[in-house]
Specification:
Structural class: alpha+beta
Largest sheet: 4 strands, mixed
Distance between the termini: 34 Å
Shape: globular
Strand content: 5-15%
Helix content: 55-70%
Strand order of the largest sheet: 2-1-3-4
Number of helices: 9
Number of strands: 4
Order of helices and strands: EHEHEEHHHHHHH
Radius of gyration: 17 Å
Length: about 210
């Protein structure tokens, strides 16, 4: 069996998976790769994931997992004692819902905001900027609704941070979301800051966002 291998780079969604792997007590190797960094890391990543997505996790049997939410769900289900997912079925269902919510709504809007040229045939900078602004407005609204629907208990995953906390902390760092939440949902903004100080979160955050 090969060791787990995580493809990612600083400041990316791979941070959430690093938190999860560490909480589950799993050893892994890191390969620096990103679609915006040509080189051997990206070449190796595209050989197993043609979209060049990060994070991508190669499991011990050589199978490949992409999509942050799917990776976190897999780790939580495979290692129930880790606390990545709640033990109670009803609470676990909501955590799974939250992971998919962030992937489907927040991550998706960030992709449009970061790469508006992929989502419009317009070539003018003003038209692309309009797409970016619309995507960010949708993203910020999605975070408002998330804050309203997923209360802390005292963490999103329950008594201790879990997969949902890790993904929320990381994805909320992008596209002006934190600045918006500071004004629109100050309690949720304060929760994100508290989570960043937790021992399960702080070391990875400091490594990715020094």
């Amino acid at each position: 069996m090969k060791p787990l291998t995580l493809y990612g780079c600083p400041g990316s969604g791979s941070a959430a998976v690093e938190m999860a792997l560490q909480q589950a007590g799993l050893a892994f190797e890191s390969v620096r790769a990103a679609s915006w960094e040509p080189g051997p890391g990206l070449d190796a990543l595209r050989a197993i994931n043609p979209l060049g997505q990060i994070p991508t996790l190669v499991l011990e049997d050589g199978s490949v997992l992409s999509e942050s939410a799917a990776i976190l769900m897999h780790l939580g289900l495979q290692h129930p004692a880790s606390g990545l997912l709640p033990a109670a079925a009803n609470e676990r269902a909501q955590a799974l819902r939250g992971l998919v919510y962030i992937a489907a709504n927040c991550y998706a809007a960030i992709s449009v905001s970061d790469y508006p040229e992929r989502w419009t045939r317009a070539t003018s900078q003003s038209a692309r900027q309009a797409v970016r602004q619309a995507a960010r407005a949708q993203l910020h609204r999605a975070w408002e609704l998330f804050a309203d629907q997923f209360p802390a208990r005292p963490c999103l995953s329950g008594a201790q941070p879990g997969a949902l906390d890790f993904l929320a902390v990381v994805v909320s760092k992008w596209s002006g979301s934190r600045a918006h939440l500071r004004q629109a949902r100050p309690d949720f903004f304060a929760l994100l800051l508290r989570l960043e100080q937790h021992p399960a979160v702080a070391p990875v955050c400091q490594a990715h966002w020094p």
